[in-house]
Amino acid sequence: MRRILAIVLGVLLLGGVVLAVILDGGSQPTATKTVEGVIGSEKAEFFRDPDVVKALRNKGYTVKTETSGSWAMDRLQLSRYDFAFPSSSEPAPEIEAAAGIKGAQTARPFFSPLVVIARSNAARVLADNGLARMTGRNAGTLLMGPYLKAAGEDRTWQQLPGSAAHPELTGTVFVKTTDPATSNSGALFLAATSNVANDNKVVADDAGIERTAPLLRKLVSVQGALEPSTDDPFRSFISGSGEPLILAYEAQVAALVQQKQAPADMVVLYPDTTVNSPHTFIPITGEARELGTLLATDTELRKLAVRHGFRPQDGVPEFTAATASHGAYLNPELTGIRQVGAPTVKILMALAERAKG
Predict the structure, then answer these.
(1) Which candidate in 21, 89, 121, 189 could, as Cys together with 280 as Cys, close a disulfide (CB 3.0–4.6 Å)?
(2) Contact 229, 176 (CB under 8 A)
(3) What residues of the chain score a pLDDT lower than 50?
């Protein structure tokens, strides 16, 4: 009788365990492989997001990241990483060469255009003087031709009519950028400004470099110390400090407004000439080979990318739908924006070197 009772109890216990697993949905932790990568700082919040961590784990990945300026990644010890994820496609060939890989199956999961964020008083003074065009209370367009003309003439805020009412606007008018020799946003802003300064043509030779270098030097030298990434100047601006005009990625702004954390006096100015920034995933080891494709194609990860302000490739409808209630700040269709190509890596780095003196 005791033996029979023990068997019955054992069956009941086993049934309880099976039932518990069923009720829990069979949700045993998915076996994951851990990969480590170096990324641009603007993607750090994305990879730290618990929902992104969970979505990646459900697909079999645990992802660890470190940040670096995109144009400095090729100088790192890349053998330490499974992937590199710069903020545009331009640094990719140099990174591949430095990592000793050829024909890597790169992916471009999402992109983000450059914007200039401004205090409302600064934006209004620019607009009143023909350097910008307001399209709403918190949005507008930076007119690159007039802006660069003012920069070439070393125009100060005090020389712009209407600035006297805003004593905080002092000194030379300039956009605070990042270091163009190491940071993607700074490099691509040089690409866009050099295009305008080169009669709306991509700089492609030494003559173009010589033609545009003096102006680019002014744009950079007036800034003083240069930041290595977009994150620090952006956070300074949001906290209420920093310069009145800051270069940023639209993704940083879009993420902020979706979280309802945008400063009331922030204005987003889209440069009327820009170079888009397709974030490019470069697998260095076989462990990370499929991760870039996953980031580009998985429905949940695309949705999370939009939540962090990025535009999925071929995903204008997704971005527009997610940001529809924040149109006061954003230009989802990039209406009125001329998108131009970037110079070759060699030319762009030569421009950066000349700009920094």
Answers:
(1) 89
(2) no
(3) 1-28
